[in-house]
Write a structure and sequence with these properties.
CATH topology of the largest domain in chain A: Tetracycline Repressor, domain 2
Oligomer: homodimer
Largest sheet of chain A: none
Number of strands of chain A: 0
CATH class of the largest domain in chain A: Mainly Alpha
Strand content of chain A: under 5%
Helix content of chain A: 55-70%
Shape of chain A: elongated
DNA sequence: TACGTATTTTGACAGTGTCAAGAATGGGTC
DNA sequence: GACCCATTCTTGACACTGTCAAAATACGTA
């Protein structure tokens, strides 16, 4: 006679379980892949109900484990959020290398436009990740995970070294300061994204021309 | 024999009381200027201990009133934060009109640099306000106060109409789209500020050259 | 002095993150 | 197969949080 028959019965039919896929043995005391299930469900909650609505207790309840089970995989809530942000950086890098076609595409007015569009699209469509990646909550007071810090530094370093290599190949003006340009242009992209996400640029029809304008401005800076 | 002798004694010597100034009658049941005291103390807590550390209960305790007294002036915590953001917009507008010398200063490479510096300085030094003004928490899910929304719209409209009037006076290139330029440049300013605030541009020595670069980029867009 | 209104308090409820201690499980060794 | 132990999960508990409803207090005014 089990001590939690209802919960177990619920678990086998829970929609949550179907997403975790591989190694989850339904009906067992051990979940099988709790760590991944936690991250997935957390992302789902943030996307569909907002970050504020994510609590460790509700998260565990939805998955079908007890409130503190998660603490075996994440030291605290912050660590969970860091793990999600890391996943975000992985997706972000994938998006970047697709837009840049792995560096095989020379910079141009068009490539700039595609890049700006891609960035803003990623930020505004995958808000669940973007908010955590550059949201501040994670970074303030230095409570972020080591691996997350490494991942994010990598991301920006790639960005700069991209510009630098363009300059060395003579594809852009040699007057450009690669580091400064990267910082300022990234700021612009980040600013556009944040203002859209936060609903301050409410008119969604304005997004496209804003991106175009930004891309033109960037290219005016870079053009040989 | 009073029912809360300790609290009353504390109140008269509390450092909090001394800041409220004018109409507070110390030692009385009625606080005198509780609304203002709440805002001031809330700002203090956010600045010195971080926004996360601000709770309605602690706030009331610090001031020396009971936990729910604040709800007579603010419908909920969100409303309190909106009030602080409004105060922030007032300070922001003051800063702007000082930098622009009330519109009497024609746009130039120097004025651009001063403007960028002023903006970033305001954002990074008065983080308590800036975070709330453009922080998202307040805007998401449309729970912001009417008066706050009005104040913020005003702020941006002023910014655009400034650029527009420059254009009409022939002080900048007539190829500039005032609205688009305003949106993109504001995004850049916001992006720089956020990335500094969030500690992602950790090197504080980089701030100055970043601002300079941004200002140059802006002026290249505007120069007649 | 009495009354109504503005202001503040107490009590209560449903949440939250997280620690410490214990219980169930599964894999490896004899 | 029986045993043991590390891994995984649960229960209980504590100190917090925002906020509602009802009661208490003080003040201005008639």
């Amino acid at each position: 006679m089990s001590r939690w028959p209802d919960r177990l019965r619920d678990m086998t039919t829970s929609s949550t379980r179907s997403t975790s896929g591989s190694s989850s043995r339904s009906g067992s005391y051990h979940h099988g892949d709790l760590r991944q299930a936690l991250v997935s469900e957390a992302v789902r909650i943030i996307r569909e109900e907002g970050e504020k609505s994510l609590s460790m207790r509700k998260l565990a309840l939805n998955i079908g484990v007890s409130r503190t089970a998660s603490y075996h995989y994440f030291a605290d809530k912050q660590a969970l959020l860091c793990a999600i942000a890391e996943e975000g950086f992985r997706r972000y890098n994938a998006m970047l290398s697709e837009v840049h076609q792995n560096g095989r595409r020379p910079p141009s007015a068009e490539s700039m436009r595609d890049f700006v569009r891609g960035y803003v699209q990623f930020a505004t469509e995958q808000t669940e990740y973007y908010d955590l990646m550059f949201g501040g909550h994670i970074w303030e007071s230095g409570t972020s995970t080591d691996s997350l810090r490494k991942e994010s530094h990598n991301s920006f370093r790639n960005y700069v070294s991209n510009v630098r290599s363009w300059k060395e190949q003579g594809l852009i003006s040699d007057k450009v300061d690669a580091l400064r340009f990267s910082q300022v242009s990234w700021s612009t992209l980040h600013g556009i994204s944040r203002l859209i996400i936060d609903g301050i640029y409410a008119d969604s029809a304005a997004i496209e021309p804003i991106c175009e304008n930004a891309a033109e401005m960037f290219w005016r800076e870079l053009a040989p």
